[in-house]
Design goal:
Strand order of the largest sheet: 2-1-3-4-5
CATH architecture of the largest domain: 3-Layer(aba) Sandwich
Shape: globular
Radius of gyration: 18 Å
Order of helices and strands: EHEHEHEHEHEEEEEHEHHEE
Helix content: 25-40%
Number of strands: 13
C-alpha cells in the first residue's frame, strides 16, 4: 500500500482529501505544520507528499528542500506564477491550485507514481532502463553498459527524481563526497558522456539540459 503524507493545516480540506485518498486505497498520514511534517518523516517512510505552502511555523517553501527524493505535489491557494515557478524549480514535482477537483488530484498522484522508478535491493527500473547498483551497470534491450563512478552517481540522483529539474549546484552537492573528480567545470562533460551512453544503449535521449538551471531525466510523457 502506498503511503501519502498530507501536510495541510486546514482541517476541513485535510479531512476531505484524506477521505478521497483512503477510498482509493492509499494509506494517509497527516501533519498540520511544516515542523510536524519533518518530525513525521524521521520515523515514517512515505511514497508521496501533498504539501500546502501557507503553514504555521515552517512554511511549505521552507521544508521543501528537506523532501528531496520524495515526489511532492504542492496543493496551495497561491496562484501567482512566480510562486509556482519557485516551488517547481525548488524540487516540487507538480503544483495544484486550490480549489481543486478531487479527480484531478487523484490523476496527478497517479502520474507521479507512474513516473517513479521501481526499486529492489540492487536494481532500479525506469521505463526500459535497469540500473544495477552493485555493478554500476545500465541495461536495456538485452544490452548493458558500465558507468564510471561519477556517471553512476549522477544517473542515480536523476532516477530518484524523474521529470524534475535538478539544479547543477544540487547535483554537485549531493554527489561530491563520492565523486571528487566531479567539479562545476567538469559536470557538463560527465553528463554529456552519460547522455551519450544511454542514447547508444536505448536509442533515446533520456537526459535534458534546462538552460541556466540544471538537468532532468525525461519521462515518456515529458
Amino acid at each position: 500500500m502506498r503511503t501519502i503524507l498530507l501536510v495541510e493545516d486546514d482541517g476541513y480540506i485535510g479531512d476531505m482529501v484524506e477521505e478521497v485518498l483512503v477510498r482509493e486505497g492509499y494509506r494517509v498520514i497527516r501533519a498540520y505544520s511544516g515542523t510536524e511534517a519533518l518530525l513525521l518523516l524521521e520515523r515514517e517512510r512515505v511514497d508521496l507528499v501533498l504539501l500546502d505552502l501557507m503553514l504555521p511555523g515552517l512554511s511549505g517553501e521552507e521544508i521543501l528542500p528537506a523532501l528531496h527524493g520524495i515526489p511532492v505535489i504542492v496543493v496551495s491557494a497561491k496562484i501567482n506564477t512566480e510562486d509556482k515557478i519557485n516551488v517547481l524549480l525548488g524540487g516540487a514535482a507538480d503544483y495544484l491550485t486550490k480549489p481543486f477537483d478531487s479527480r484531478e488530484l487523484l490523476a496527478r498522484i497517479t502520474v507521479q507514481f507512474r513516473n517513479t522508478a521501481r526499486t529492489s535491493d540492487n536494481l532500479v527500473v525506469f521505463e526500459n532502463l535497469t540500473l544495477n547498483h552493485d555493478l554500476h551497470e545500465v541495461s536495456a534491450k538485452g544490452k548493458s553498459i558500465r558507468l564510471t563512478r561519477t556517471e553512476y552517481a549522477i544517473f542515480k540522483l536523476l532516477l530518484q527524481n524523474p521529470g524534475q529539474v535538478i539544479p547543477k549546484s544540487t547535483i554537485l552537492d549531493r554527489i561530491c563526497a563520492d565523486t571528487p573528480d566531479c567539479t562545476e567545470s567538469s559536470l557538463k562533460v560527465h553528463i554529456s558522456n552519460l547522455r551519450k551512453k544511454l542514447s547508444e544503449l536505448s536509442g533515446r535521449d533520456y537526459i535534458e539540459a534546462v538552460w541556466g538551471i540544471g538537468f532532468r531525466l525525461k519521462t515518456e510523457k515529458s
